[in-house]
Design brief:
This protein has about 190 residues and is an all-alpha fold. About 70% of the residues lie in helices and about 0% in strands. The protein contains nine helices and no strands. Helix 1 crosses helix 4, helix 5 runs antiparallel to helix 7 and helix 5 runs antiparallel to helix 9.
């Protein structure tokens, strides 16, 4: 287990990297990340020797946050509201990480297991929310969590030249309305 000060540094670096990635994309200068975290670049490189290590760590942390949100929301809200709020959290992950998708598809070995990690963790979390919404009669039956995750991710791609994420929320809202529409119809 890492020392408390080392863990604080890692947490600060991951938070700072996330903020810098949102503001400036994943190609942001590591000095900016270290400065935002309040540590030196040597500390950054001690914990994350390669930029890809830092990107992968931020992405894993974001996945873990999305997964944890599913449990929290399912206990706090009615089933469809929990699904809606969770998809908003997922949109935040997908739509606000400039360049993350390109980095993840770059072929860098540091990213090799991230897709599997995401599917193994986010898929079941979303499946629980979908099951709850189905059982409550809020949505139709048979929505695949991985299909829904893919559809949302595709809807989060901004039009060329745009950085406006509000469109993603509107588009995903339309998708969720479609799931609600299916609740009143049987699927053969």
């Amino acid at each position: 287990m890492p020392r408390a000060d080392a863990q604080r540094n890692v947490d600060a670096l991951l938070s700072a990297a996330k903020e810098e990635f949102v503001a400036n994309g994943v190609d942001v200068n590591v000095r900016a990340i270290a400065a935002r975290a309040g540590v030196g670049t040597a500390t950054l490189y001690r914990h994350f020797p390669l930029r890809s290590d830092l990107i992968a760590a931020v992405f894993r942390r974001e996945i873990d946050g999305v997964v944890a949100a599913a449990d929290e929301l399912s206990t706090e809200l009615p089933p469809f509201a929990a699904l809606e709020r969770w998809t908003e959290r997922y949109i935040e992950l997908v739509a606000t990480k400039q360049g993350l998708a390109a980095a993840l598809h770059s072929g860098d070995p540091a990213f090799a297991g991230l897709r599997g990690y995401f599917e193994e963790h986010a898929g079941p979390a979303l499946q629980t929310l979908l099951d709850n919404a189905e059982h409550s009669g809020a949505i139709g039956n048979g929505t695949s969590p991985l299909d829904l995750l893919g559809a949302i991710a595709n809807l989060c791609v901004p039009p060329p030249g745009s950085t406006d994420t509000s469109r993603a929320y509107r588009m995903v809202g339309l998708l969720l309305n479609g799931l609600r529409y299916d609740a009143g119809h049987t699927v053969d």
